[in-house]
Amino acid sequence: MSLYDAMFSQYGVKIAQVLVTKADFYNEETRRNLISTLSELISLNIVPIINTNDAVSPPPQVDEPIGAKPGKRGISLKDNDSLAAMLAAEVQSDLLILMSDVDGIYNKPPWEPGARFLHTFSSEQRQTIEFGQKSKVGTGGMDSKVNSAIWALDRGVSVVICNGMAKEAIKTILSGRKIGTFFTDSAVVGAVPTEIIAENARIGGRLLQTLTPDQRALCVHTLADLLVSKQSQILDANQKDLQEASSSGVAKPLLSRLSLTPSKLKNLAHGLKQIADSSHKNVGRVLRRTRLAEGLELKQITVPIGVLLVIFESRPDSLPQVAALAIASGNGLLLKGGKEAAHSNRALMELVKESLATIGATDAISLISTREEIADLLTMEQHIDLIIPRGSSDLVRSIQQQSQHIPVLGHAEGICHVFVDKDADLKKALKIIRDAKCDYPAACNAMETLLIHEDLMNTNFFMDVCDMLKKEGVKINSGPILNQMLTFAPRVAKSLKHEYGSLECCIEVVKGIDEAIDHIHNYGSGHTDVIVTENNNRAEDFQKKVDSACVFHNASSRFADGFRFGLGAEVGISTARIHARGPVGVEGLLTTKWVLDGVDHAAADFSEEGGRQWIHESLPVN
Amino acid sequence: MSLYDAMFSQYGVKIAQVLVTKADFYNEETRRNLISTLSELISLNIVPIINTNDAVSPPPQVDEPIGAKPGKRGISLKDNDSLAAMLAAEVQSDLLILMSDVDGIYNKPPWEPGARFLHTFSSEQRQTIEFGQKSKVGTGGMDSKVNSAIWALDRGVSVVICNGMAKEAIKTILSGRKIGTFFTDSAVVGAVPTEIIAENARIGGRLLQTLTPDQRALCVHTLADLLVSKQSQILDANQKDLQEASSSGVAKPLLSRLSLTPSKLKNLAHGLKQIADSSHKNVGRVLRRTRLAEGLELKQITVPIGVLLVIFESRPDSLPQVAALAIASGNGLLLKGGKEAAHSNRALMELVKESLATIGATDAISLISTREEIADLLTMEQHIDLIIPRGSSDLVRSIQQQSQHIPVLGHAEGICHVFVDKDADLKKALKIIRDAKCDYPAACNAMETLLIHEDLMNTNFFMDVCDMLKKEGVKINSGPILNQMLTFAPRVAKSLKHEYGSLECCIEVVKGIDEAIDHIHNYGSGHTDVIVTENNNRAEDFQKKVDSACVFHNASSRFADGFRFGLGAEVGISTARIHARGPVGVEGLLTTKWVLDGVDHAAADFSEEGGRQWIHESLPVN
User: Fold this and answer.
1) Which residues form the Aspartate/glutamate/uridylate kinase domain (chains A, B) (predicted)?
2) What are phi and psi of B355, to 5 degrees?
């Protein structure tokens, strides 16, 4: 107590010691006295420090079960945790904080595979949690804390179990930030735990996979039809989003992206029908057939990846598109849309569920509503196979950084270059540069840096380019070399590795193709790079050496796009080097599986005594 | 001082205050006195607490540069850090520890992209580090700490800068574990920083990529020839490893894996020549050709992934194999071998470098020698594109867990099932089970769990299987259902999700194919699963529904192998779902790139006013 006194007095807080015994809670008079003492102390701004009165209480019996006994009003007072829980329930406190030397609780013993830290715990989850052996510290271990917390929760008191050594733990809790495990039955916590939603997507995806391509296509057609027949319902929901957005002063371009119209829905339905029609050869396609030996035939076939997590911003039309792609490719799907489109997304999701119900796979696709759930999902590598963020570079970058073990398909940056070689047709060059920069400057495949061969600096070309860009309203920055060459140069670019994403670009001078390639490797993002030249050997050299997803000759960088590449619906553009690179169509949602048919084949048959021989004959796939 | 005194006295340590001024270091007499005072105190086990004598020293001038001035012997005493550095140099201390409220230093300001924590810092690295603005705490900020540390390092004193709030920081430092940044010029730290080695692999890989397939093949042939012509040199090195291993009491199987022989080398050379010969169509293969529009043709071609990090255990023969695969596929490569094969690996690496030198790409492949370097490399997602751990499940699992943003190709577990359907030919079943479990029990594709249709429990089959397994020396565990069925059952398996990896397995009874599939999904690892049945429809159903990399019918699980699948050299077996799945051949080291050739094509040409039309015609790839 003297230590408590010394420490609290540093903050100018007065304390009072209160000692209780179990009996004090059962005897109506002592109980009343206790509660009024506590209320009085609190009203006087005195913090009661409560403990069991060990001098007069018998030690608790270790094997006495925790929990209410019939005819008794409390839990047995085995330790400070149960004492705290009982007191919290008695005074109906707003929050009970139980401090431990561990960070909180996990869904299973933390040393077991698949153990996941629980930020929130609702009493429904009780069955899904396995607790480990009691920790060595005995009755003060986690079991007792958790039982006390649940006991208090059942009596309407929210509880946080956290690590008392964490910096400013109490302040962090009171500011509402995530620390420890929050025991609550508040409705904010989704009724279905995120992990269950993810598991259902796996099961639903497996079900989709076993259907025939026709059944999957039919489901997408159903969804397309619903978009038209339930149009008014969708537009009503969208109207709510638009009202909320405009009343909170959202910018015009965002509003137009958020808005749905009958014609947008019609086009969307049309696009979905195309996805359905072209889906028949996605799953189950034979990529390779090999006769390994007499009677032993191997096939490599395409199958869905499994469970996708797609995170998209504002545009609600992404939802049915992505859902259709997932259904057509037999993948389970978790979707997270932007907050600003919440009403529209919910309405669209209902239609997705309705169409999935026709094939009995309702759970294959679910909508995730909170950011906390996303953070949880990003750690569930056992449930999620691929993450696709669709939106701003910031979104992609943040998802890439947060996801530590689940692959992320996408690109955080699109720093695309156009290199104008000395042998370029300068008219073509001007045309390609204009298109690459000005056709849609916000796109990831727009040009950010123009590289000009130094020989062209003696011609009119540089001035022509600058005039053209100026006319188009493009702000020019210069690279350090260009800047040194000119008497009056545009301001020096802050960084050569920068995505302007607007009517602005950088111009730099290079000595030749090799310097251009080095520049691209040093400052580019491996997205799309272009050479303009009439020298085909040099173009080939450039296309061979530039290590980017897309390398173009005499064509605008704006062609780097799934639709323009003829891939159908675009899943995204990837600058990763494995799985899928560049514009990705529905093929990016597929993987393969090896199917082997034998008679009674054993590996030992192929040993020297086994008598069977390898053939390894490649067979036609059709 | 009273606080210091109170705290040190808790540990029974006596302290003494020593106050100094800058002048005390310049005046030869005071300097001598100071040093002997300090020596005397230390010899008496008294810890000197040293500070500037602020009562008599003028405050330091803020703009006075840190660093030795001509004619002066020390650095200016601006703060405790410079004081500490000067004292450490004066007494030639073994280690100077500078404590801060940050963890140590980074290669660039920690909030910038690509900032990497530096565990070690050698004075050669000085140029490669950018320091940020002085932190708000003024002269006590990191700049001053780093300058003082470098100053001391230049005078032969090693320094650790660490977070003083870290738990038991001093004990951790003294036990030699990694905490904070260690400033040292000791030779233990590789001459070339890991990051530079990785960057060189990228540059070297890009160079390999620009060579012709013939040049790459020739380089592999050169390496193959060197393995034979420099045989004695390799065997000498290997002898040293074997001696060290046997003197440290290494087990026999490990010794045999470690040992190289003339015939092993000959076979190895033969294998390398096969890799060279079959490499011509790896890189630059056209996978897809599309005419997007008149004069605009798109090609998707295979290209190397970039830079691979391959981590392998004991077998030194892996080194030339993996190097040959990387060269043949045009990838840069970083290799980390087992410590026990250090001599052999170095000798083999010399030959790899010798063969790379013939094509001018010496730096494309490098050997990494310390585990610390691996930890560094696992965070360098900008330099490394794919990690391939080849070795035990523990190795793979640990690498998978450590690598947060670089994909890892491999499998941590191989929990393979054989399901014997009620319509199985029981003789075939016995043969396949024996092969799947006993042919090579340590392999990842060996059977771990046998699932038996319940109808077969009324036949002799169960006893026949048990007799056969017993005869082969296989220890049997039973699943919970089998255990309940039998009066005298084998002991219950501790877990149904377990890889025995030895002559041991689990047997469980299932009601039918659906329960078998559920069991496999719940407890399997997605590696290889087998059905034995004469009912082809049921086999097809099983192959469709089981969500594993390999699903076999009437064939042993042991066929899941790159060579047996006819893929040539095996890179690994992957249970991941993206990029490559199942046994992976050299194709797993490749990705694709999109190459577009146009005339002057702009995206705007395809708008309504543009006048150009999409064709999207698929062209033959040959």
Assistant:
1) 1-163
2) -70, -35
